[in-house]
Amino acid sequence: MFRKSTGLSFFTAILLGAAHVSGQPSAADKAVADKLFDEGRAMLDQNRLPEACLKFAESDRYDPSVGTRLNLGDCHERQGKTASAYGHFGDAARLARERGDKSREAVAEERRQALEKKLSRIRITARPGAAGLEVLLDGKVLGAAVFGTALPVDPGSHVVEARAPGRSGFHEEKVVPAGPATVEVVIPELGAVAPAEKKDAVEARETRWSTLRGVGFATGIAGVVGIGVGAGFGAAALQKNAASKEKCDAGDPTRCSPEGYSLRNAAGFSADVSTVLLGIGGGVLATGIVLFVVGGNEPAALAERAWVVPVVGRGSFGVSAGMEF
Fold this sequence. Notes:
This protein is α+β, with helices and mostly antiparallel strands. The protein has 3 domains: 27-116, Tetratricopeptide repeat domain (Serine Threonine Protein Phosphatase 5, Tetratricopeptide repeat); 120-187, Immunoglobulin-like (Sandwich), CATH 2.60.40; 207-324. The protein contains 7 helices and 11 strands. Strand 2 and strand 3 (140-142) form a beta hairpin. Helix 6 (211-245) runs antiparallel to helix 7 (258-295). The longest helix is centred in the C-terminal third of the chain and has 38 residues, at 258-295.
């Protein structure tokens, strides 16, 4: 229906020589635009509307022309996308006016005015008041100036949303029929939302005993074991001493049989070991308590594994300690 034409441009620029305008399509761009335009025309004649509309849109991107925009408007009108077609005819009229193409300007305006009577529209009304209120139509933020204006839209489903800081949101989907038709959407006052409880800036990390506290605990256990072993040697000393008395003269305790002397010596040794172990165990226990209290906790990821194992042998006592990093 509409042929692509470069037309005559009546720009009043009197320059010496030819001037290159920044952003002006190159010869290659125009060649691509012409090819896409021809393919779009062929598809339009075959009633392949979605493909034809895409071809015209891409052609116009390479080299905007009045003819391309007229064909794009015609293509969308055939699809029933009246608002899109209305917009393209308006673009064609403006471009034709800029280029002094009065005949095509008249055609574009005529098509545009004919569509105006068939437009589907949506009118959004929002109550002012909520600070920072944003209203969106199909994901696009609307300015406050459009509230109350019947906005041209293509027939079909459209989503209206509203949001504001500290307020509950609004979401409504409306199906706008083929025009002439106007659908009303009233955005109610958005309710206040209770502020969420503030969380600590840094969430508490899982903790475990620090290495020092673990060493203190193990040391304390070693101290308790030492005291227990010392007490055992003390009890053995008492038993051996009592048994030795049965092998000695009641009137003269220094006079004993060989077995009595052996029992008395063993009782003395056990008593000495008991004294040493009780002293060491008490000291180790006290040290463990101090380390446990001072050590505290630390983040689980930073903790090392440490151990302290009491070692008790015949006539000896000690601890084995280690740490794994």
